[in-house]
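> example.struct
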């Protein structure tokens, strides 16, 4: 959950707004919370004895690639809603900051991992997760997001800069088809978002963008006695079916394309795809 350092105008205003708009949701009272509070008190006492103040994150504090500005909780909720996060998901939050996205996902029953370079923020996130009673499902790694294995994820969340998104884009496109990627505010260059929503009751950085990693279908297929040729740019499709031009779109492993007056919908399974077409008849194509 980050914002650009001094590269965007009005940073002081953004930081002030973020302080008002982005406070984390309150954690429920649990035994884990009591234990975490005791640990926090002990740490604070130790720091005081050593003449040091306990770590407190500051909006705008420097990071490895960017400075820290937290995603407003209302947008965290929207991002996870758009990704349809459930207890079956494994969520990875890139640049997890104070842990709020990971903790919110864990409260929905998902397993979630926060990747954060700042060790103080990692320690704070672990304390926050324990206080929220989700320490068993919400974990945090002090690591470089570019070097992190993302292949376990069914959902990726992030609040990073456009240039960092672009560096990550090839790695994201290599993930399993159907993996959901959600970004706070910033785009993926010419990879258009599948969905975009803006929330109310939010003062800055209030738009969520969703991408669904598409299956790769470019090439030549055989559909009945016709040749299906597909050209693919991210999730968008063009090509021909026999002599007819087609346009279409991927959404994970789901495919839809139209040739003339006929629309084909189906599912891609490796070298095979099948489904139904206008009128209800079934179809099947193979490489």
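> example.seq
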């Amino acid at each position: 959950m980050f914002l650009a350092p001094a590269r965007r105008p009005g940073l002081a205003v953004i930081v002030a707004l973020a302080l008002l708009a982005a406070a984390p949701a309150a954690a429920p009272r649990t035994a884990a919370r009591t234990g975490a509070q005791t640990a926090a008190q002990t740490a604070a006492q130790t720091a005081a004895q050593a003449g040091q103040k306990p770590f407190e994150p500051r909006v705008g504090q420097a990071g490895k690639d960017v400075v820290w500005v937290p995603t407003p909780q209302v947008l965290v909720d929207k991002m996870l809603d758009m990704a349809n996060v459930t207890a079956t998901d494994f969520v990875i939050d890139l640049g997890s900051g104070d842990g709020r996205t990971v903790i919110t996902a864990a409260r929905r029953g998902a397993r979630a991992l926060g990747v954060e370079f700042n060790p103080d923020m990692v320690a704070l996130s672990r304390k926050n997760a324990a206080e929220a009673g989700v320490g068993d499902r919400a974990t945090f790694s002090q690591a470089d997001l570019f070097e992190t294995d993302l292949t376990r994820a069914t959902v990726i969340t992030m609040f990073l800069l456009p240039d960092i998104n672009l560096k990550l884009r090839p790695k994201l496109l290599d993930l399993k088809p159907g993996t959901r990627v959600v970004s706070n505010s910033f785009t993926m260059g010419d990879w258009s978002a599948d969905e975009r929503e803006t929330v109310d009751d939010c003062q800055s950085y209030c738009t969520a963008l969703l991408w669904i990693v598409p299956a790769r279908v470019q090439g030549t297929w055989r559909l009945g006695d016709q040749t299906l040729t597909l050209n693919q740019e991210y999730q968008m499709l063009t090509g021909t079916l026999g002599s007819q031009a087609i346009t279409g779109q991927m959404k994970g492993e789901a495919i839809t394309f139209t040739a003339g007056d006929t629309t084909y919908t189906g599912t891609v399974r490796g070298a095979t795809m099948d489904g139904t077409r206008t009128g209800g008849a079934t179809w099947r194509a193979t490489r």
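> remarks
Helices lie at 11-21, 31-49, 73-82, 100-107, 119-131, 162-173.
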